[in-house]
Amino acid sequence: VAKNLLNSGTLSFVAGTDLTFDGGVAQTFKPGASVLSSDIFVTGAGTAVTLSTNALNIGVNNLNIASSTSLDIIGQGLTANVLSNDGTLRLIGGNTINLTTQDVNSGTYEYYGDGALALNIYNIKDFGVNDYYNLVINDLSVTNKDTFQIAAGLKVFNNFTVNSGSFNASAQIPDVDANVTIGTAGALTASSSATA
Fold this sequence. Notes:
Strand content: 35-45%
Radius of gyration: 17 Å
Largest sheet: 11 strands, parallel
Distance between the termini: 41 Å
């Protein structure tokens, strides 16, 4: 798919068929309400796919986000088997995410909030013992930037960046293997213990 895929009816796939977004531009994906029985690939430098209307549920199939591409699930849910993320998975925060295998050796998760005037608090998804490779907090709201918090220990295998908005460790212990960077519009409230 080089442009948009907008499904308001029934979208089904023959077994073994892949769905690939490769336009190299901003693309909109409305997956519909049903489970999609297809692996999904986001590929081609510059491809930026944004969900519309529905959660993305591909069941036991795999989601692949290539380098220099992104998938923005906004405030929607995501269900997949294996996530292979060499690019960026963007989300508002507080999303329901169900993955059998999370990718913790490459790629970036970027939390950006809802952009509304009201200040909101969002929980960062806890994937268990191993959470993220790169984690970015990047709320671009002009005023009332959102706060992103953790309810359990946070493990980041590479870099943790708070570009804009606030991160609150909420008495939990973040463990970051590489760099922690706080931008001029960012704020980080650490717990009594942190490992970097």
